[in-house]
Amino acid sequence: MIRFTGVFLILLGLSLTNASKDEALHKVETIIAYESFEGTADEIGYTSNDWERGFSNYALVLNSTTSGNPAPTTNTHGFNGHHIHSGIPTNVHNPDGGTANFYAVDDLDDSGNTRSDDLGIITFNNVDVSGATDLKVKLLLGTDRADRFEADDYIQIYYAFDDDITAHPGLTTAFTQGAYTLLADYRGSGEGTNASRDADFNGTGDGTEVLPFGTATISGGNNDMVMADLSFDLTGTGTNLSIRIVMATDWGDETFIIDNVRVVGDVPSSAPTSATVAATAFIEGAYNGTDLNTTLNASIPATQPYSINGHSAGETAGSIPAGAVDWVLVELREAASAAAALKSTRVGSAAGFLMDDGSIKATDGTSDLTVSLSGNTGSEFFVVVYHRNHLSIMSASAIADNGGIYSIDFTTASANTYQSTTALTTLSTGKFAMSAGDADGDGDVDATDLTTWQTQNGGTFTYNSTNGDFNLDGVINAVDRNDFQQKNESKTSKVPTT
Question: What is the model's pLDDT at position 437?
Answer without folding.
Answer: 98
